[in-house]
Each structure stands twice: as C-alpha cells, then as structure tokens.
Amino acid sequence: MMATTHALWGMVLALPVLAIAPELAPVAFVAGFVGGLAPDLDLYTGHRKTFHYPVYASIAAVPALAAALLAPTTLTVALGVGLAAAALHAVADAFGGGLELRPWEGTSERAVYSHYHDRWVRPRRWVRYDGAPEDLALAGVAAAPLAMIGTGPITTVVLAFVTVSAVYVLLRRHLAGVAERLVRLVPDSLTPYLPARYRRA
Q1: Helix (H, G, I), strand (E, B) or coil at 139
Q2: Most exposed among 17, 84, 113, 144, judged by the fewest C-beta atoms under 10 Å?
Q3: What pLDDT was estimated at residue 190?
Q4: What distance in Å separates the CA atoms of residue 192 and residue 141, rounded to the nearest whole number?
Q5: At what angle do helices 74-93 and 3-12 cross, to 10 degrees?
C-alpha cells in the first residue's frame, strides 16, 4: 500500500483519543502519522523486513494501548497510538502485493517479513499493488472521518495526502518504466546498493 494510505490509517487510530481525551489528541495524531510511516524507512534497506514487525509490533501495541487507556499521558498515548499504527502498517502489507518493481504482474511471493516466524509472508493481493485504485479507495475511507472531525491542520494534511495519492495512482504504472530507465544510468559500482527490485530491472 501507499505510504500515504498507511499514514492516514495511523491517524485514524487517534480518533478515539479525540473523543476521550481531546487535550491529548494532537500528540495522538502525530504519533499515528509517524507510526504509520515509520516502517517504510526501510525502503532502501531491506524493505518490508528491517522495520516491519507484523507480530512483534502487534504484541507490543497491546500493553502500550492498555497503558494509554489506564493512565493517559502524552508519553503513553504517543507510544500506544504509534506502536498500533506501526503494527497496522506491517500487518496491512500482507494484504497487498509483493516486493517487485511491477507488482501488478504478481511474480513475487514476498509481502512482509515475519521475524517471529523467520520467513516471508506471502502477498494476499487484496490491494493488488501500491497505487492501485483500491489503495486510493482505502486512503479515501481513512481520510473522510479525519477531514470531518479533525482540526484545521489535520484537514490540510489529509487533503494533501489524498491529492498526492490520487496523482501517484494516475502515474503508478508509468513510474516503473521511469525507474527502469533511471537504473540504467546508475554506475555499475553503485548497482549493488540498489534495492533488489531495481537491480532486476
């Protein structure tokens, strides 16, 4: 799924905080945003493996959310929402496409790495690939309550993310070809440092 989709769904996890403890909502929205994006910091260093923990992040999120519920503070809410958003991101990647330059071709059987099981989880392809129309639909579903209930800055971020997502969806298939052409310009000495999906291009 798109990074924007993950970030928006991470922010959705902050909505209960807005209802229960509105004074802590700003930190919850930021934590959901960061937690939803953070796993993709491994984009160029073992993508969907280095910072993706579908099992461990999910386990860690349970006591963190319990602490936030029982003793809501800036720290407990940030940890609870942030960990839950990171876990949701890692789990959701299993329902998308595989790790390949053209995921709509369905040639990769690697969706996300489970460190607990010490193996790759296969892609379910419910969202066929990042930037697919159904990916944009998921982003829209998350964006709707955020835009309606969120504050001015939240609404601005949400509308910006939906706009970026829509443009990406329109260009997604063309971007694979652009990447292939750019990879050919990379010096041979740097090729080993490219992610595997680009080296195969």
Answers
A1: helix
A2: 144
A3: 74
A4: 39
A5: 140
Q: What is the pLDDT of residues 156-199, one digit of tens each?
A: 999 999 999 999 999 999 988 887 787 777 787 777 767 777 66
Q: Do 51 and 41 meet the contact criterion of CB atoms below 8 Å apart? A: yes
Cα–Cα distance, 139 to 149 (Å, whole number):
16
CB distance 125 to 136 below 8 Å: no
Provide the 8-state DSSP code for 123: P
Q: List Cα–Cα distances, 63 to 18, 58, 84, 163, in angstroms.
A: 20, 10, 10, 35
Give every CB contact of residue 101 below 8 A, 6+ residues apart in sequence: 176, 179, 180, 197, 198, 200, 201
In sequence order, what DSSP letters do the residues of 46-108 get, joined into one string?
STTTSS--TTHHHHHHHHHHHHHHHS--HHHHHHHHHHHHHHHHHHHHTTS--SSSSGGG---
Residue with tokens 């509105």: 22
Structural domain boundaries enclosing 136: 3-199
Contact 72, 21 (CB under 8 A): yes
Q: How many CB atoms lie within 10 A of CB 185?
A: 6
